[in-house]
Amino acid sequence: MKRYALTLDLKDDPQLIEQYIEHHENVWPEIIASIKGSGIRHMEIYQVATRLFMMIEAEESFSFEAKGRLDAGNLKVQEWERLMDQYQQRLPFAQWGEKWVLMDKIFQL
In the chain, which residue ranges form alpha helices assigned H by DSSP? Predict the structure, then answer.
């Protein structure tokens, strides 16, 4: 299994943060199917204030590029992403078009 850590910020608005969390308590089944269909076997998202942290465990064949191609052709995923955009704020150092930023592992015990 491959493991990835990613981060993203939410807009600094308590009501929007609450709504974002509520959406993630009831993720659409099509989104879950898309995540699993891309080779992701385990995903967790953590939140503190406006900062989000996502941990992904995926099959060895998983790639973000392949997932991006699948997502681009999935209308339900595109609808979900437009909905989530209302709550998310790009990190100042994110590349153009990048939402979740891949983190580098700097320590392991």
Answer: 14-25, 29-37, 64-72, 75-85
User: Is position 104 within any domain?
Assistant: no
Q: What is the pLDDT of residues 50-108, one digit of tens each?
A: 999 999 999 999 999 999 999 999 999 999 999 999 999 999 999 988 999 999 999 99
Question: Could you tell me if residue 109 is inside a domain?
Answer: no
Is 102 domain-assigned?
no
How many domains is the chain partitioned into structurally? 1
Q: What is the pTM of this model?
A: 0.91
Torsion angle defined by CA atoms of residues 95, 24, 74 and 93, in that order, rounded to the nearest 10 degrees = 0
